[in-house]
Amino acid sequence: MKFRFAGPLLAVSLALFGFGPAQAETELTIAHNLSPSSHYSAGAKAMAADLAERSGGKFKLVESYGGSLGGERELTEGTQIGTIDLVITSTGPIGNFVPDTLILDIPFLFSSYDQAHAVLDGPIGQALLEKFPEHGLKALAWTENGFRNLTNNVRPVKEPADVAGLKVRTMENDIHMEAFRTLGMLPTPMAFTELFTALEQGTVDGQENPIGVILSANFADVQKYLSLTQHVYSPSIILIAPAVWNDLSEEEQGWFLESAKVGSEAVRKKVREDADNGVAILRDKGMQVIEQVDTAAFQDALKPAFDKFAEQFGKDNIEAIRDYKP
Ligand code: EAX
What we know:
By secondary structure, the chain is α/β, with parallel strands linked by helices. 43% of the residues lie in helices and 19% in strands. It is built from 13 helices and nine strands. (2R,3R)-2,3,4-trihydroxybutanoic acid binds at residues 33-34, 72, 90, 92, 145, 171, 192, 209, 213, 234, 236. (2R,3R)-2,3,4-trihydroxybutanoic acid is lined by residues 33-34, 72, 90, 92, 145, 171, 192, 209, 213, 234, 236.
């Protein structure tokens, strides 16, 4: 009888003194603005599972999806001031915080997923990650959003003449806006969280995003034409609030870096699956898909923008990415 309560008592006292499984699980939010069926969600789940295992249950990541904590600019600001713990975001707004990353947003800079991964995971990508702390941010790993494609409700787009005068939502990104203006479009910067409604109400004619985003955000419900323009590669990144990062021990920081890599790989895998299978699904949902896009003509038409970018970033720096060989 005497020892009947020893088990529970022991558990309670171990918990009080910070031992055993009851030891504080630290719950951290990982936020993004896509749906639970998206590549970011696949990454958040994979990172959460890996981190839980690696840390023996010490860190629990709780996913916040659908932009419920804000658009990508707000999420990024949230990590800066410490109101949001972790974020997966495209580079859309990132250049407004870390200007050096804008070079990655140049259209037709990357020609394949493999090239993009080699650049981002190699010394160029690493050097860019190291710029984040100067701007009050901490980046754990590059990951992916994918090659972007144009959708609209006005006409099938095959060549530059077809986009003249189209009012197209862009990310809050100066490089994208400059390129779109050069093509004769009317770029309208807007947070992704407002985009579905803007398309539905006709505030804008179109938008551009990777297949996985078009799919998971149900844009087929509000957009008629999909042109496989692949006009720009869209990287994404996993951020952690410096306030959280600086509180971690070196060993714990190592866990987060490793888990972010696992998350990043899961995102990339899903991006590829969606790119491979998604077009057929979007066609089934009623989109008219234009596969034969005159890429060379779009590249020619962008020449004045490319000249500006060469001046802004340095021709050599752009070529170092375009011609990168691991
Ligand atoms: O990061 O804003 C955008 O169009 C992004 O591609 C989307 O939010 C996923």
